Each structure stands twice: as C-alpha cells, then as structure tokens.
Amino acid sequence: MSCTGPRPSRYHAAFVASAHVTGGGRPVTGGTVTFTLGGASCTTSPAPSGSAACRLTREDPPGQLPLPVGHSGTGEYQAGAAAADFTILKALSDLRCTGAKRVAGGQPTQLSGVLTERETGNRPIAGRTVTLALGAGSIRQACTATTDAHGAAVHRPVRRPAPGRGRDPTGGRGVLR
User: Fold this and answer.
1) What is the H or E stretch that residue 81 is in?
2) Does residue 157 contact residue 140 with C-beta atoms inside 8 Å?
3) What are 95-120's pLDDT values in tens digits?
4) pTM
5) Contacts with 43 (C-beta within 8 Å, 6 or more apart), sequence order
C-alpha cells in the first residue's frame, strides 16, 4: 500500500487523497480503502488498477498531520496500511470594504469590511481582528474590530477631518481606504 495523493493543501479546501494497493506486485481490487486526516475521513474501493481515491476537506487547524490510509483486506490478501505526512496550509483571505465610499469632511462615518476565505467560495471568517482605516499619513484614523459570524467587522463613528485641517490625502474626494 502506498500513498500517492497531494501532500500540502489549504485549510477548508477539498482535495483528492489517493493510494495504490498492491499484493505480490499486482493490483488488489477488492476490499475498501479508508483515508483519515484529523477529524475527516472517506472510504472507497480500489479500481482494477489498484488505485483508490476520494475527496477530503481539511477542517483541522493549519499545521502538520499524519494521513493514514488503511486497506481492509480481501479473501486473498491481508489488511494493509500506510501513512504520509500531510501539511494543512493557511487559507487565503480577502477583506472587502463595505462601508461608505465617500465621507464629508468633519462628518461621522462607520468603517466596515467583510473578511472571507478566498478558496472556499468566500466563506466568512469569524473571530478575527481586522484594522480599518480612513485617510493616510498624519490624518490617518485607524481602529480595530473583531469579525462576527458573517465575517463582518464594524467600527463607528470615525470623523474625517474637516477641509483645511491638515493635509487631505484623498484630494477632497473623501474616498475610504
């Protein structure tokens, strides 16, 4: 029995685990093959070539985990097992600005954004601290907020400096950055 599938993959993204089952140098086609990665597992039967594959989704935190693979055996062959080291990589994320796009000088506004996982169809990321900012340089105003169950982070109110009070990096447009 040998593991043939990919080794590193991103958190929450599905991947295909694969192995090859042989006996005496020939493919084994009976029995079942079970792949286990942390809290996820899948079971399949070997193809006529001895190859077995099924989809797993990594739910365990990023890091190194063993990927054990077991074959149940057949009437002719004993059960077998193998393992490979597997690395769960951190997921890529996107932070999208959802607050006001323009802010009048001296007026309060709400800064907000949504944090999502890029590779899983924009699944929300909850419980993370994000920094939201308005302006740049000496008039930059920044705050931190924690994302909720929908990945949303909100901080209010923030005031954009009134015209004539310091350098305005937005050129008077009041664009949220």
Assistant:
1) strand 80-89
2) no
3) 988 877 777 777 778 889 999 988 77
4) 0.65
5) 32, 33, 34, 35, 54
